[in-house]
Design brief:
The protein has helices at residues 25-39, 47-55, 115-121, 171-178, and strands spanning 10-17, 21-22, 62-68, 74-80, 89-100, 131-136, 141-144, 148-152, 158-160, 182-184, 197-201, 205-211. By secondary structure, the protein is an alpha+beta fold. The strands form two sheets. Strands 7-6-5-12-11-8-9-10 form an eight-stranded mixed β-sheet, with helices on both faces. Strands 2-1-3-4 form a four-stranded antiparallel β-sheet. The longest helix is centred in the N-terminal third of the chain and has 15 residues, at 25-39. The chain starts with 9 loop residues before the first strand and ends with a strand.
């Protein structure tokens, strides 16, 4: 079950590379500040300091998880990170029983309220799907349980669903839109039949996906 609405935290999941630093750090911190303001959380004043303390002395890539609670307290945990091979293709399925509500404004921010995503992921065994896509009540494609959705939409252009469909404003998604490598447009399941599909997030980047129809 989800935590009570008053008992959730904001999350940012970043990748740290020793030779480069935090990937997309500015976009992550901007989203955190925007989400905190929208939900009435105190501004995350010490988030950057906590991040820098957590990676001090790191000599290998890390997955870094930053949380901010309702009292404005930031916490950071780290774990080893291994990038996917460039030729990786994830097997993707569509959740059959779990739907997102496009009117749920909390879907637009990344929080510890994860029950709907966990329910979608639980519809398939790990050997049946690497990622599960969710639809909303209008049968529009929204997002994966941990990724944004991107559909080939012409030469060197991707299409990604609008926030109004009920989905997270992903950091990778924001970057690709700002770079004009992706545009916003509604996606329905039938659109996925004859176009190249990708899923992705800031931690892992774009991942080629193969949709397995139920």
């Amino acid at each position: 079950m989800d935590r009570p609405l008053e008992d959730f935290s904001l999350i940012e999941t970043l990748r740290y590379e020793p030779e480069v630093g935090f990937i997309r750090l500015r976009l992550h911190l901007a989203r955190l500040q925007r989400s905190a303001r929208r939900l009435g959380f105190p501004a995350p004043k010490n988030a950057l300091t906590k991040l820098e303390e957590a990676i001090a002395g790191a000599s290998a890539p890390l997955r870094v998880r930053l949380t901010l609670d309702r009292d404005g307290q930031a916490a950071v945990t780290t774990a080893p990170f291994s990038a996917l091979s460039p030729d990786t293709v994830w097997r993707v399925r569509i959740a059959a029983a779990t739907r997102l509500d496009s009117a749920d404004k909390l879907l637009r921010v990344k929080t510890t309220r994860r029950a709907v995503y966990e329910a979608a992921r639980a519809e398939y065994r790990p050997d049946e799907a690497d990622e599960v896509l969710l639809l909303n009540e209008k049968d529009e494609v929204c997002e994966g349980t941990i990724t944004s959705v991107f559909l080939e939409d012409g030469p060197n252009t991707l299409r990604t669903p609008p926030i109004s469909s009920g989905l997270l404003a992903g950091v990778l998604r924001t970057e690709l839109i700002c770079q004009r490598k992706a545009r916003v447009g509604r996606i329905r399941p039938d659109d996925l039949r004859d176009r190249t599909l990708y899923v992705g997030n800031s931690l892992r980047g774009l991942i080629r996906a193969q949709l397995i129809w139920n």
